[in-house]
Structure formats: structure tokens, C-alpha cells
Write a structure and sequence with these properties.
44% of the residues lie in helices and 23% in strands. With 196 residues, it is of the alpha+beta class. The protein has a single domain, classed as Lambda Exonuclease, Chain A (Alpha-Beta Complex). Strand 7, helix 4 and strand 8 form a beta-alpha-beta unit. The longest helix has 20 residues. The protein is globular, with a radius of gyration of 18 Å.
Length: 196
Amino acid sequence: MSEDYIPIAALNQYAYCPHRCWRMFCLGSFVDNQYTIEGTNLHDRVHTVGEGQREETWQIRAVWLKSERYRLIGKSDLIEEQDGCWYPVEYKRGHRGEFNNDELQVCAQALCLEEMTGQPVTLGYLYYAQSHQRQPVEISTTLRQQTLEAIAAVTHLLETSTMPAAVYSPRCKGCSLYSQCLPKAAAKVSRYQEID
């Protein structure tokens, strides 16, 4: 992968936690935990290269997506085509969360698909393995704007390698990198430094 391109997965990580994204894509630091191993196993199963027909839908697995316009690159889990309409399907291990980082990832895939096919992509899907549910993702003007903002933020992060602050939030609970960034400890150190 060329360094000029932004990994689509980086958008998801940045929207979840800028500090986590910095650790993963600037430092190259990553630690597995139960959740990341489950996710890797799911993607290993999903990323079996192939294509086929399922009723009226043509499915292609493990396709590389790329956008010259947005400088994005990444491997899709599943691309489907039905009646001339293309849409990405992203697989996730858990269940639908309260954050929109997964939706941003689907939208970025849709932007690549639009450029690659010359067709508008107005819909994508998130498939959650834990609940066996497929959730539609409308590729709306608002989601597109949020995705473009994330692309700009990640581009800046990768170009400058400036470390975002480690900020504690409920998202930290299942993070495999929590023991490396220690956001609660970082906040205490910062408070002590302010006192001095």
C-alpha cells in the first residue's frame, strides 16, 4: 500500500478514538484482545476471495477498493450488485453500537465504489455477526460530509504524526490499546502539572 493513500479502516479508528488511530497508523502499535481476535477471525472467514450469484444479487468478496479523488484504499468484506446498483457490506463482530464509526467506514467504501464503477451508491450495509442482523446505511449528504471531514482529519494526522490526547470515555472499556495510552493516568498527570 502506498503511503499516499489513507487506509479506509483508519477512518473507522479515528472516528472511534483519534488517539487509538494515531497509535495504530502513526506508531504502528497494536495489541490484540478478545474483541480484536474475534474480529480478525470473522474477517478471515469473510475475506475468502470469490464471487457468485445469490438469488438476484451478484456478490464479490474481498475486493480492493481505491479512490484517487479521496486517496483512500482498503479491502471490502463484500460488494453486492442488484439491478445495476452497487453497495458495500461491512462485517462487524459485535452488535450495532452507539457511535457512527462503522457507518463512516461503509460511506468511505461507497465513495470508492462510486469512483470505480461510475455509478452513484446510495446505500450500504453493516452486518453484525453477534446478532446476525444486516443494518442499512443510507449514504446521505450528512454522512458523506462527516466522512469527508474524517478523511481530512486522518490525512492531517498521518502527515503530521501529531499525537492526539488520550481522553477517557466509555469507548475505552473494550479497547485493546487501553493499557498503552492509560487516559485516566494521563489526565491525572496533566492535573498535577497544572498545580505545579
